[in-house]
Amino acid sequence: MYRSASTLQFQITSRLVKDNQLGQQIGWIDALRFNAVRDRYIHEPELKVIKVHTCTEPIAAEFWQGNAIGIYTFRDIRDVFVSSMRQRNKSFDSVWEEGFIEQCLENHKRWTELPNVLISRYETIMSDLPHEVDRIAKHLGINLKPNECQAIAADYSIEIQQVRIQQFTNTLLQTPLAPNDHREIVDYHDEETLLHMNHINSAQVGRWRHDLSSQEAILIGDRVKDWCAHNTYPASEFLHSTPS
């Protein structure tokens, strides 16, 4: 799920795969280009680590055919919504009107229905990262000692990630951008770590309670109340309020 520590999962997975000589890191790809990327590496038998948010039919087919290992994370969609607003510097209305919540719900349904997918919860990842390292390792068939999990987790703490972001930002701001590249500066990311210059704005759980107005919380809460209940997230206290 967007804004749910999926980049963190990708970094840890890539490290485990490379350190244990199980394959290589490819990086983020556009889900619509999956077939082309798959075909480019089809004769290389080892693992190829990619990051993608959208689960397309060709991607799902790889899982049903036993050709893929998945690692998925989700988060309270209300926090996902707020985090996306802040990271992309967009208004509530802008994110709402692009169907962002529907994208999250649809992708969540698709990923969690697939076989051989490790499903993680953002709040649990952030509260016990060594445990998440161990879970990912086991999902890949790798046995790590507790001190190894601790060491890897320490290398991906928020503080260390912030240093990586600052280093990337400094490099980006000193690099002339291609004249035909019309991306916003916030859309650029480091190809190795997949971190954006404003990637981490808050790891706070439940920040939607502070960042959304009561009317905004009602709109989202009404749309995701069943999903929240199914995934044991508390209902919005604004849900049954009357907007002023």
From TrEMBL:
The keyword rRNA-binding does not apply. Gene3D superfamilies: P-loop containing nucleotide triphosphate hydrolases. The keyword Transport does not apply. Residues 21-162 form the Sulfotransferase domain. One of its GO terms (molecular function) is sulfotransferase activity. Keywords: Transferase. Belongs to the sulfotransferase 1 family. This is Sulfotransferase domain-containing protein. It comes from Thermocoleostomius sinensis A174.
